[in-house]
């Protein structure tokens, strides 16, 4: 519109981002803040869960996971879903800067790819609160403790399969070169939500099986 | 490449479909065949399930649903996933004709939209066999009967949310005008896999809750 657009650092170079404003925070600051905040959350949940009677170590670790996962879904991913113009911000805002940075590994974020927005929407609005409810459920052992974990983990897995597989099928370059962007941001940070939900799904599937087995034994 | 391409009937008109060959079977024939084959499947499962002792009517109806759903996933949707060139076929092939016809309601099929291919891939390869296993599980009552139904239904729901929501976000016209394409093919035929999985999820969630409640009561 007559105004020069700033060139953006994302792949593909041809992508148009009207109003793009370059990053205002360093990679080190962003990673340290997200890593530090996550560590604080995990530490708090670990310490608090220590005062709940009868909780085993695996339960306490799962509470830490669901707290970290749920807050990431709601705060980080929720911000992305409801802030389509985060890449135009001219003043430093931590959450906007996180997505400017992460888009270097997956430019579908800054480019507002509909599939990514939908997956993130489901994750932020449904899986996120589901994770926080799971923290509570693991501590208090209601009847839906394992059902909830299984459903939330299945949804996370489904989302991650669509997330990775659409990139392979589209065959478009979305990631800047370099091991940090590809292996750490793209593969590792998303792979976490493949591996851990898969383990939780197996565990909760087994726990439900044992409940039914016990019911059948006692009613036989 | 020098050869004139046949014009295609899909939306948007600008979509390129190299090698497209027009439909070779009528809408009435395709719908009657799919409807008739589905009715035969439902009838067979209904009759066979009548000979299984202790099955309630709702169990028998669910077996019919999972048989119909699983065979649709594996045969129809599986064919789509693994036949990217179905729209170029010059000889009549029922499954290719089904997708030429359905693409009038959702041209992402003939256009091989990556998100649709991924969802259909998960549905055909994972949910389809899961549905057939559910038919067996409802009849034989293993400990995983309700867990399997819940996971399969959650996956179907997730897929359908992504399926519908990406269309809304993209804002691209994919459906021919007319109530049959939009309301019957697009809304109704996909809406089935929203409503029924939602009902099954609630039912199986409740059944698992009762199993845990019974376990806790008996161990108390």
The gist of it:
Chains A, B: It is found in: Membrane. Chains A, B: Belongs to the EBP family. With 220 residues, chain A is an all-alpha fold.
Structural account:
The structure is a homodimer of 220-residue chains. Chain A has six helices and no strands. By secondary structure, the first copy, chain A, is an all-alpha fold. In chain A, helix 2 crosses helix 3 (94-102) and helix 2 packs antiparallel against helix 4. Chain A starts with 26 loop residues before the first helix and ends with a helix. At the A-B interface, helix 4, helix 5 and helix 6 of A face helix 4, helix 5 and helix 6 of B.
Q: Please bin the fraction of helical residues of chain A.
A: 55-70%
Largest sheet of chain A: none
Topology of chain A as a string of helices (H) and strands (E): HHHHHH
Envelope shape of chain A:
elongated
Separate helix tally of chain A: 6
User: How much is the radius of gyration of chain A in Å?
Assistant: 20 Å
Structural class by helix and strand composition of chain A: mainly alpha
User: Using CB atoms under 8 Å apart, which protein chain pair has the greatest interface?
Assistant: A-B, 36 and 36 residues
Instruction: Give me the oligomer status.
Output: homodimer
Q: Strand tally of chain A, please?
A: 0
Summed over residues and divided by their number, the pLDDT of chain A gives a mean of 93
Report the uncertain regions of chain A: none
Cα distance spanning the termini of chain A:
77 Å
Percent in strands of chain A: under 5%
